[in-house]
């Protein structure tokens, strides 16, 4: 009986002493407000249309966060043949006050391969993001590339479209 009571006491202490675990994004957000997934109070979001392309940018904030502005966020390859490899290039410009870092680029499908700059982009500088699309399936295609960045948004989405014919 003493062993059972002792085991229950140990289990109770262990259960009560456990702290709530935090995920990495909450630690980053609490340590560095510039990496939160929202626009800083000093910043403002704007959307403009240039040659039919929609661009979303955040004007530079006062706290020194990077701001990613793209020449386009969507590319339409039009009608292409099945089995072909198609490439496009998105240009990202850092309109912020700190280095822009693209931490990762992941595609929504294995047929889409992004190639992004691995070094920080200085304020006022630009860099290409190349996206290769292998047309393996016939029909209308719409693929996203998600960039994980150190901007106020935290992520940026680029899209490639195509109508793939046999």
From TrEMBL:
Coiled coil: none annotated. Residues 26-49 are annotated as: Disordered. InterPro entries: DUF1573, Ig-like_fold. It holds the Pfam family DUF1573. PANTHER family: LIPOPROTEIN-RELATED, SIGNAL PEPTIDE PROTEIN. This is DUF1573 domain-containing protein. It comes from Paenimyroides tangerinum.
